[in-house]
Amino acid sequence: MEINRKVHNLIHAGPFLRNAIESRNLQVLSSMLGPAYRGIIAQNGKAARQSAVECGHDALFSWSYERDKPEMARLYEHAKKMQWNAATDIDWKLQLDPDDDGTGLLPDHYLPVLPLPSWRALTPGQKREQRRALLAWLLSQFLHGEQGALFAAAQIIEAVPWMDAKLFGSTQVVDEGRHVEVFHTYLTTKLEKMYEINDSLYVIIDSVCGEPAWDMKFLGMQIMVEGLALGAFTSLRQATREPLLQSILKSVVSDEARHVKYGVVALRSLYEQQIQERERRYREDWVWEVALQMRNRFLAHEFYDEYYGHLMSRRRWDQLVLGSPLMSLFRRAMFKRIVPNLVKLGLLSDRVKPRYAALGVLEFQDAKAATELTAEEMLSEAS
Ligand SMILES: [Fe+2]
Ligand SMILES: [Fe+2]
To answer: Which of 109, 206, 278, 349 could be 35's S-S partner, Cβ–Cβ 3.0 to 4.6 Å?
Structure first.
């Protein structure tokens, strides 16, 4: 039974393996294979209530306590002032509108299933249930991503050599704990539904944990996953008309904007001065693989299994979701946040630009990087 499940999962791992070979970087392929096996084939994120992920870094103590990164010190001071309490600063008394047919939570033009005859045949009650379920799937992935960010922030504190970065990281740990709290509370008390972690998200989190180099943790979590989160949170905030969710997303985005900024500040000077060309290429290719994981594989399979698995093949489902307005909105919002930061870090060389051009997201190379944007600007920008 166990072997059957793994063989079944191996068959579904095809798209991942094709993506992994796309960058033609064997070092990236070998670093991703372990996380891919654990995430997609063994499905460690779904197999039990808890799972252990091995972390590859050393904890670096500083006995001089030298504070020599003023830009990061300013971010730390700002972060201390901007703290909020998820239990009392969010109006949890607000109830979901009982008369809402679900379109207030997630408007219909975002539903990938909208063109399907089987969707049109549903009763209003079934449609309402599926609208809520899809939103619950999305917010569940936010929740799991926040847990990943919480752990990555703690690892970064240990692994980064600079005291100012360790101190800022202490505020991020509190921030991410708060984000876990708000999404979990919203899912369990308002939507009353929660989904397991998506396999691709597990692969990324596992891969970030296992990377021994501290800058790879910054790159994976602060630049890529947080970039995706910023894009997704701002898009969803514009899409939903649910006031409680809007207020949660607004508060979370104001924290996330600091985290991405912290990542860019930390990596910029390192990559300008102390990186070998071979290491830079590895990072460029690794980022590309993570981007593909995030772009191609967040396909709501857990929602599909529940509602559409008996109606169509997974391949057809993937095509449906990849071509849907919701996914194209998220993809654009995500790359709009990530690509300018990669430019700033020197990780978008002429060698890799054609890959981004093929995805139609190279236009964002001239957009503002995180260090030039406020949270308000991110929130008000149209996706
Ligand atoms: Fe967060
Ligand atoms: Fe964050």
So the answer is: 206
Q: Cβ contacts of residue 326 below 8 Å, gap of 6+? A: 110, 111, 112
Please tell me the number of the ligand nearest to residue 182's CA: 1
Place of tokens 């995805």: 359
Residue 235's domain spans which residues?
A: 2-380
CA–CA distance, 355 with 175 (Å, rounded to integer) = 34
Contacts for 36 with CB less than 8 Å, ≥ 6 apart: 13, 16, 17, 20, 203
- Report every protein residue that has its C-beta within 5 angstroms of ion ligand 1: 146, 149, 176, 179
What's the 179 CA to ligand 1 centre distance in angstroms?
5
Q: How far apart are CA 298 and CA 200, in angstroms?
A: 7
Which ligand is closest to the CA of 257, given by its number? 2
pLDDT, one tens digit per residue, over 326-380 is 888 888 888 988 999 999 999 999 999 999 998 888 888 888 888 887 778 877 7
In angstroms, the CA 340 to CA 261 distance is 12
CATH number, residue 300: 1.10.620.20
> Which numbered ligand comes closest to the C-alpha of 249?
1
What is the distance in A from the centroid of ligand 1 to the CA of 118? 36
CA 229 to ligand 1 centroid distance, Å? 8
Name the amino acid, one letter, at 93.
K
Class of residue 125 by CB neighbours under 10 A (exposed 0-12, middle 13-18, buried 19+): exposed
Distance 176 CA to ligand 1 centre (A): 4
Distance 344 CA to ligand 1 centre (A): 22
How close is the Cα of 172 to the center of ligand 2, in Å?
A: 7
Q: How far apart are CA 51 and CA 35, in angstroms?
A: 13
Q: Within 10 Å of residue 63's Cβ, how many Cβ atoms?
A: 5
Looking at the chain, list the stretches that DSSP marks H as alpha helix, in order from N- to C-terminal side: 2-12, 14-22, 26-36, 44-47, 70-81, 117-120, 124-159, 163-185, 199-210, 214-217, 226-239, 243-273, 277-296, 301-307, 314-322, 325-344, 353-358, 375-380
Q: Each residue of 306-319: pLDDT tens digit?
A: 999 999 999 999 99
Nearest to 183 by CA among 271, 107, 86: 86
Q: How many domains does the chain have?
A: 1
Kindly report the pTM of this predicted structure: 0.91
